[in-house]
Design goal:
Elements lengths: L7 H28 L5 H23 L8 H5 L2 H36 L11 H4 L1 H21 L8
Helix pairs in contact: 1-2, 2-6, 4-6
Length: 159
């Protein structure tokens, strides 16, 4: 059995985000139980970390060929048209991820220039937003790696 490809930095980042979400949520529950009040920062950080977790996990799933897709047509086609379909899938994904990366970077830059602050804690908003283009760029790279491996026969359709 071939070892599955890995996206170690994204896997660690997503795992860390999940662990921090669990810890701050637990701390918030305990604080609310003991004092009747809640910790102000937990919601803002949890939402931010959930975005990191989502994009990091999606990058890992891309690299491991774990995203859901319907392969019926793909499996029914001979190699030439199948290769064209795989490349079309790649082009669509790269276009979407490229747009997310571009507009996410543009938004993060604008938030930096405007010195926007987060509504809850008053932290610079770009601290949260900059992760969107960074992790969508990681997904773009992982999509390209996955497509290359699929075209070279290193990844099974149903792995």
């Amino acid at each position: 059995m071939k070892p599955s490809p890995d996206a170690r930095p994204e896997r660690w980042l997503a795992s860390l985000a999940l662990a921090i979400i669990a810890l701050i949520s637990l701390a918030n529950v305990v604080t609310r139980y003991l004092s009747g009040g809640s910790l102000a920062f937990t919601e803002e950080f949890s939402v931010f970390l959930l975005v990191v977790l989502t994009f990091g996990g999606a990058a890992v799933a891309l690299r491991r060929n774990g995203h859901i897709r319907i392969g019926l047509l793909e499996r029914a086609l001979p190699w030439g048209p199948r290769r064209a379909l795989i490349l079309l899938q790649w082009a669509c994904a790269i276009t979407l991820l490229g747009l997310i990366t571009w507009f996410g970077a543009k938004l993060a830059w604008q938030e930096y220039q405007w010195r926007s602050l987060s509504p809850g804690l008053g932290l610079p908003q770009w601290w949260y937003i900059v992760w969107l283009p960074l992790l969508s760029a990681a997904m773009l790279i992982r999509q390209t790696q996955q497509t290359r491996d699929r075209l070279r026969g290193r990844l099974d359709d149903e792995s």
